[in-house]
């Protein structure tokens, strides 16, 4: 019993010392990081990106998760002027949709293709029960 009381008192002492230390550090380092004027300014913050040139890039990812029936992928690349890509997705009706696209100064052109045949399960109406009136 005495050991647990001593332990609790020790923990409280450490917590109090940590609070005191943190407060003293905050009081010593409270300087304004920027100039604050009495005049409010309504001008928006300025952001300048000097390099507006198109970037060269490429990426690819694929997800195939049997349990959730997720199956899709996407690949894209750019030479800085033309973007080319392809993505595939497994549709709920069993078909796979593939989209190949090109985007350049003339716009976006996509070719959409479907593999497989759509499968629709037989419709079974839900069983209804009579609701008694009050």
TrEMBL record:
Q: Which organism is it from?
A: Daphnia magna
Q: Which residues form a coiled coil?
A: none
This protein's GO CC annotations: extracellular matrix; extracellular space
Q: What is this protein called?
A: Putative Cuticular protein
Q: Name one GO molecular function term.
A: structural constituent of cuticle
UniProt cross-references to Pfam families, sorted A to Z:
Chitin_bind_4
Q: Which InterPro entries match?
A: CHIT_BIND_RR_consensus (IPR031311), Insect_cuticle (IPR000618), Insect_Cuticle_Struc_Prot (IPR051217)
